[in-house]
């Protein structure tokens, strides 16, 4: 995409000279005869670069620079003047000018400075984009869902992020424990320092100590040089110890010492190193039970368990399934457009499915449908196991007719009304989702609401 440049100078000959020069370099060039004219143009159009004279009638170039950096801070600015003074140059640089050119200038000098100014601006914008992407991915938006249980998770993350307390994240596999750890890190004062993650269960016992603490040259066969461990790599940031329950007892003792003393030694090293690292640990196992069994140190457990965040399973927060499906669909689908992305039948099947693999399994299901070429997620693209569970009827509690008899219609009406209310509650008042929960069409659901006089109870539901 061609960069857009605005040339500001009260001399017509200078404006036209620079415009011709820059147009020949492939830039889109506009001209302004005064600072006021430039500000008017910038209110209507975004410019990647402004080249401005310093001395102009009315508002001067230095004042224009200050306005530009206030109103459009990403725009690069080059200042040009025939009367260069050290004071002017210093003031311009303090206000954010990329550089300062004195007249007369060389054509090649202008070309180089324009190119470098635009390159620097692109690097700054790319850095901002990457930071925004990280925040988007690992801030609270990295965790999808508005259910009560997920709101409780968000509240805890918000409270612990700005502290230095160790955090223990518990929950089944696939519930998003690492996402929660990243959300804590990227919402904390340590967000610009490294986030380092390690799965304690994926590294052999003989290597885990060296992996965590590093090793000194000659510490063992093959240690040909000093090697920093994960604690050093995470300096100033966060170290995420996933599956902490798999850590051997000997390493648990060494980890406890690091948490207590805030220092460690490399394997084979004789110098203690400081550990400015926040620990976030996670486990899908019951650590309290491991403590009772003697496979996990009680003192380490309490050191880690300053604050515990429990990630709910997907079956506990089924109302988040539609939002998760939409999120993963947008992640994997190569086509764009509005409209239905999942049929009511398929969504109903997902609601009934138990999801032993939790959110990770749901993501895989959505990716599977996209890979199979389904523009709309339907029953045909879902695995047989999901479809079969939908067909299986859930058993009702056994009940007997009272000896004195019963009013069957009144009983059924009461039950039906109760289920309608529950569906609305679980769907957050969204009637279309509530209809899906009950396996009926939206029209049938509206009919039943009207039947029991409930249609006006939630006018905002859609």
Automatic annotation (TrEMBL):
What InterPro entries does UniProt report for this protein, alphabetically? AAA+_ATPase (IPR003593), AAA_lid_NorR (IPR058031), CheY-like_superfamily (IPR011006), Homeodomain-like_sf (IPR009057), HTH_Fis (IPR002197), P-loop_NTPase (IPR027417), Sig_transdc_resp-reg_receiver (IPR001789), Sigma_54_int (IPR002078)
Q: Which residues carry this modification: 4-aspartylphosphate?
A: 53
Query: Source organism's superkingdom?
Result: Bacteria
Molecular-function GO terms, alphabetical:
ATP binding; sequence-specific DNA binding
User: Domain Sigma-54 factor interaction: where?
Assistant: 143-371
Q: What is this protein's record name? A: Sigma-54-dependent Fis family transcriptional regulator
Transmembrane is among the record's keywords: no
Query: Which residues does the UniProt record annotate as the domain Response regulatory?
Result: 4-118
Q: Which UniProt keywords apply?
A: ATP-binding, DNA-binding, Nucleotide-binding, Phosphoprotein, Transcription, Transcription regulation, Two-component regulatory system
SUPFAM superfamilies in UniProt: CheY-like, Homeodomain-like, P-loop containing nucleoside triphosphate hydrolases
One biological-process term from Gene Ontology?
phosphorelay signal transduction system
